[in-house]
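Q&A log
Question type: sequence-to-structure
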Amino acid sequence: MKKGLVLQGGAMKGIFTCGILDVFMENNITFDGIIGVSAGAVFGCNLKSHQPGRALRYNKRFVHDKRYASWWSFFKTGNYYGADFCYRELPEVLDVWDNQTFEKDPTEFYSVCTDVETGLPHYQKLSKGSLDDIQWLRASASVPIVSKIVELEGGKYLDGGLSDEVPLKYFEDLGYEKNIVILTNPVTHKEKFSPVLYFMEKLFFNKYPNLLKTMKSIPERNTQSFLHIAEQEKNGNILVMRPKTELKIGAKAKDEAELDRIYELGRITAHERLSEVKEFLNAGGKK
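Response status: OK
Response body:
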């Protein structure tokens, strides 16, 4: 029975996921496959490269660096999160991503982004930890309006959360029958359609009608996705880990103490449920 790990995005809320994943690494909890969306992909790749602490470390180190994340970067490069700094200089030089370990580890790793031409999710398997793989991570985390469209292999892509925020169903279709799902919002989280945001999106993406349809349908689609998650959780087919309350950290958070707080909440959640996680993954059937 294939064991999978499904990671929701959520920008800096993803630091909560980092806390959980670090506890997993410290306790030798492994999976046959991992799929991540946006921050879930960018931070989750460190599980396959066996680098606990890395995501929190570099976020705290560079959170005030204008090359990393700033309006200076946006107006200078078109990306709030500096593309060259975040996806080349940082992983290659400043806090090296162990791509060799990533490649050697047998765990399958998938990153999700959204095809702006079709409006559909694109699921990319990353196996080498190469610069090309890093660009797929960048695409997965490229938030509309504050990020440029990422062009890869003849396609155009943006944030995976636009089309498949929690890709549990995709992993189930791949044959992953026993999945742990890490969410960055509590069960009470409900997304509402924002006319103002949609108006902004229409201004920026009027050339991509399918993408606009996808953006407009996000609340409805996510409702169906979370209903599926709830049903699978109720039936014992998945184990869901989530914060108990809203994390209350902004997407552009600059407070190192806040990053530590969110990270520790993830660690606490993981330790509280560690025996449950092990039992679920080691059981032959349902938990």
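Response note: The chain is about 45% helix and 15% strand.
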